Amino acid sequence: MSLNAELRSFYEARQQQIPAEVRAVMNRAGEELAVSGQAERALSVGAQAPRFALASATGHTVALDDLLADGPVVLTFYRGAWCPYCNIALRALQEHHADIVARGARLVAVSPQIPDESLSLSEKHSLAFDVLSDVGSDTAKQYGLAFDLPDDLAAVYDRLGFDLQRVNGGHPRTLPLPATYVIDRDGTIRWAFVSTDYTTRAEPADVLAALDALV
Length: 215
What we know:
The chain is of the alpha+beta class. Helices cover about 45% and strands about 20% of the residues. The chain has a single domain, classed as Glutaredoxin, CATH 3.40.30.10. Strand 4, helix 7 and strand 5 form a beta-alpha-beta unit.
Protein backbone atom coordinates (compact mmCIF):
# COMPACT_ATOMS: atom_id res chain seq x y z
CA MET A 1 0.00 0.00 0.00
CA SER A 2 1.32 3.44 -0.88
CA LEU A 3 1.71 6.05 1.85
CA ASN A 4 -1.12 8.19 0.53
CA ALA A 5 -3.42 5.18 0.24
CA GLU A 6 -2.70 4.46 3.91
CA LEU A 7 -3.35 8.10 4.80
CA ARG A 8 -6.64 8.10 2.89
CA SER A 9 -7.77 4.92 4.63
CA PHE A 10 -6.94 6.44 8.01
CA TYR A 11 -8.73 9.67 7.10
CA GLU A 12 -11.91 7.88 6.09
CA ALA A 13 -11.97 5.82 9.27
CA ARG A 14 -11.25 8.85 11.45
CA GLN A 15 -14.04 10.94 9.96
CA GLN A 16 -16.59 8.71 11.64
CA GLN A 17 -15.09 9.51 15.04
CA ILE A 18 -15.09 13.31 14.70
CA PRO A 19 -18.24 15.31 15.56
CA ALA A 20 -19.90 16.96 12.58
CA GLU A 21 -19.37 20.49 13.88
CA VAL A 22 -15.65 19.82 14.33
CA ARG A 23 -15.37 18.37 10.83
CA ALA A 24 -17.07 21.47 9.48
CA VAL A 25 -14.49 23.75 11.09
CA MET A 26 -11.61 21.60 9.83
CA ASN A 27 -13.00 21.40 6.32
CA ARG A 28 -13.63 25.14 6.11
CA ALA A 29 -10.12 25.94 7.33
CA GLY A 30 -8.67 23.49 4.82
CA GLU A 31 -10.58 25.02 1.95
CA GLU A 32 -9.49 28.53 2.92
CA LEU A 33 -5.85 27.47 3.09
CA ALA A 34 -6.11 25.70 -0.26
CA VAL A 35 -7.35 28.82 -2.05
CA SER A 36 -4.89 31.11 -0.25
CA GLY A 37 -2.17 30.35 -2.79
CA GLN A 38 0.39 29.63 -0.10
CA ALA A 39 1.46 26.30 -1.55
CA GLU A 40 2.24 28.03 -4.84
CA ARG A 41 4.24 30.72 -3.03
CA ALA A 42 6.39 28.24 -1.10
CA LEU A 43 9.90 27.54 -2.32
CA SER A 44 10.07 25.02 -5.12
CA VAL A 45 12.42 23.43 -7.64
CA GLY A 46 15.36 25.62 -8.63
CA ALA A 47 15.35 27.78 -5.51
CA GLN A 48 18.26 27.92 -3.13
CA ALA A 49 17.39 26.19 0.12
CA PRO A 50 17.51 28.63 3.05
CA ARG A 51 20.21 27.63 5.51
CA PHE A 52 19.32 26.70 9.07
CA ALA A 53 20.87 25.45 12.29
CA LEU A 54 18.29 23.81 14.54
CA ALA A 55 18.31 21.81 17.75
CA SER A 56 17.83 18.08 17.37
CA ALA A 57 15.77 15.85 19.64
CA THR A 58 18.97 14.79 21.39
CA GLY A 59 20.13 18.36 22.02
CA HIS A 60 22.82 18.91 19.42
CA THR A 61 22.65 21.50 16.65
CA VAL A 62 22.16 20.33 13.09
CA ALA A 63 23.08 22.77 10.30
CA LEU A 64 22.02 22.35 6.70
CA ASP A 65 25.49 23.35 5.46
CA ASP A 66 27.05 20.52 7.48
CA LEU A 67 24.57 18.02 6.08
CA LEU A 68 25.17 19.15 2.51
CA ALA A 69 28.91 18.75 2.95
CA ASP A 70 28.28 14.98 3.04
CA GLY A 71 25.75 14.75 0.21
CA PRO A 72 22.18 15.61 -0.76
CA VAL A 73 19.52 16.18 1.88
CA VAL A 74 15.90 15.09 2.15
CA LEU A 75 14.19 17.74 4.25
CA THR A 76 10.64 17.12 5.44
CA PHE A 77 8.41 19.48 7.41
CA TYR A 78 5.64 18.10 9.61
CA ARG A 79 3.13 19.61 12.04
CA GLY A 80 3.96 17.68 15.21
CA ALA A 81 3.67 14.43 17.10
CA TRP A 82 0.04 15.27 17.94
CA CYS A 83 -0.83 14.89 14.23
CA PRO A 84 -1.52 11.23 13.36
CA TYR A 85 -0.99 11.89 9.66
CA CYS A 86 2.50 13.18 10.44
CA ASN A 87 3.27 10.07 12.46
CA ILE A 88 2.18 7.80 9.61
CA ALA A 89 4.32 9.78 7.16
CA LEU A 90 7.39 9.73 9.40
CA ARG A 91 7.07 5.99 9.93
CA ALA A 92 6.92 5.54 6.16
CA LEU A 93 10.11 7.56 5.76
CA GLN A 94 11.75 5.49 8.47
CA GLU A 95 10.86 2.34 6.51
CA HIS A 96 12.76 3.82 3.55
CA HIS A 97 15.58 5.39 5.56
CA ALA A 98 18.12 2.74 4.59
CA ASP A 99 17.28 3.33 0.92
CA ILE A 100 17.82 7.07 1.36
CA VAL A 101 21.17 6.54 3.09
CA ALA A 102 22.22 4.05 0.40
CA ARG A 103 21.88 6.88 -2.10
CA GLY A 104 24.33 8.99 -0.10
CA ALA A 105 21.65 11.32 1.31
CA ARG A 106 20.67 12.47 4.78
CA LEU A 107 17.08 12.67 5.96
CA VAL A 108 15.99 15.28 8.49
CA ALA A 109 12.51 16.17 9.74
CA VAL A 110 11.52 19.61 11.06
CA SER A 111 8.54 20.67 13.17
CA PRO A 112 7.68 23.64 15.42
CA GLN A 113 7.76 21.39 18.50
CA ILE A 114 10.13 21.79 21.41
CA PRO A 115 13.03 19.27 21.55
CA ASP A 116 11.43 17.20 24.34
CA GLU A 117 8.42 16.53 22.13
CA SER A 118 10.68 15.61 19.23
CA LEU A 119 12.62 13.23 21.45
CA SER A 120 9.43 11.48 22.55
CA LEU A 121 8.40 11.13 18.92
CA SER A 122 11.80 9.76 17.86
CA GLU A 123 11.82 7.19 20.63
CA LYS A 124 8.20 6.10 20.12
CA HIS A 125 8.70 5.42 16.42
CA SER A 126 12.39 4.38 16.59
CA LEU A 127 13.39 7.05 14.09
CA ALA A 128 16.99 6.75 12.90
CA PHE A 129 17.11 10.24 11.40
CA ASP A 130 17.37 13.64 13.07
CA VAL A 131 14.14 15.31 14.17
CA LEU A 132 14.70 19.05 14.52
CA SER A 133 12.88 21.77 16.44
CA ASP A 134 11.94 24.94 14.57
CA VAL A 135 10.35 26.68 17.56
CA GLY A 136 8.68 29.86 16.31
CA SER A 137 8.71 28.44 12.75
CA ASP A 138 11.44 30.81 11.53
CA THR A 139 12.83 28.15 9.17
CA ALA A 140 9.37 27.20 7.91
CA LYS A 141 8.78 30.90 7.21
CA GLN A 142 11.95 31.09 5.10
CA TYR A 143 10.67 28.20 3.00
CA GLY A 144 7.28 29.89 2.66
CA LEU A 145 5.49 27.13 4.58
CA ALA A 146 4.39 28.75 7.85
CA PHE A 147 0.77 29.77 8.33
CA ASP A 148 -1.41 30.76 11.28
CA LEU A 149 -4.41 28.72 12.35
CA PRO A 150 -7.76 30.53 12.16
CA ASP A 151 -9.44 31.21 15.50
CA ASP A 152 -12.10 28.53 15.22
CA LEU A 153 -9.63 25.80 14.24
CA ALA A 154 -7.24 26.80 17.04
CA ALA A 155 -10.18 26.45 19.45
CA VAL A 156 -10.94 22.99 18.05
CA TYR A 157 -7.34 21.90 18.56
CA ASP A 158 -7.51 23.16 22.15
CA ARG A 159 -10.73 21.22 22.62
CA LEU A 160 -9.04 18.08 21.29
CA GLY A 161 -6.25 18.51 23.85
CA PHE A 162 -3.34 19.10 21.50
CA ASP A 163 -1.88 21.81 23.81
CA LEU A 164 0.06 23.58 21.06
CA GLN A 165 0.91 26.38 23.49
CA ARG A 166 3.16 23.96 25.36
CA VAL A 167 4.45 21.66 22.61
CA ASN A 168 5.27 24.57 20.29
CA GLY A 169 7.09 26.55 22.96
CA GLY A 170 4.63 29.44 23.22
CA HIS A 171 3.81 29.63 19.50
CA PRO A 172 0.49 27.77 19.36
CA ARG A 173 -1.00 29.28 16.25
CA THR A 174 1.77 28.79 13.66
CA LEU A 175 2.24 25.52 11.77
CA PRO A 176 4.04 24.49 8.56
CA LEU A 177 2.42 23.15 5.44
CA PRO A 178 3.39 19.51 4.90
CA ALA A 179 6.41 19.65 2.62
CA THR A 180 9.35 17.53 1.53
CA TYR A 181 12.38 18.75 -0.41
CA VAL A 182 15.31 17.02 -2.07
CA ILE A 183 18.28 19.39 -1.94
CA ASP A 184 21.49 18.78 -3.88
CA ARG A 185 24.98 19.35 -2.50
CA ASP A 186 25.04 22.86 -3.95
CA GLY A 187 22.00 23.76 -1.85
CA THR A 188 19.58 23.85 -4.78
CA ILE A 189 16.10 22.38 -4.40
CA ARG A 190 15.83 19.66 -7.05
CA TRP A 191 12.48 18.16 -6.08
CA ALA A 192 9.62 19.46 -3.96
CA PHE A 193 6.32 18.36 -2.54
CA VAL A 194 4.21 21.06 -0.86
CA SER A 195 0.53 20.72 0.02
CA THR A 196 -2.07 22.61 2.00
CA ASP A 197 -3.77 19.26 2.68
CA TYR A 198 -2.30 17.74 5.83
CA THR A 199 -3.78 14.35 4.93
CA THR A 200 -1.47 13.95 1.91
CA ARG A 201 2.32 13.61 1.93
CA ALA A 202 5.27 12.98 -0.34
CA GLU A 203 5.50 9.36 -1.42
CA PRO A 204 8.81 7.80 -0.31
CA ALA A 205 9.12 6.18 -3.75
CA ASP A 206 9.01 9.62 -5.35
CA VAL A 207 11.68 10.87 -2.94
CA LEU A 208 13.94 7.96 -3.90
CA ALA A 209 13.33 8.61 -7.59
CA ALA A 210 14.31 12.24 -7.07
CA LEU A 211 17.53 11.18 -5.38
CA ASP A 212 18.28 8.78 -8.25
CA ALA A 213 17.81 11.64 -10.68
CA LEU A 214 20.64 13.55 -9.01
CA VAL A 215 23.21 10.98 -10.07
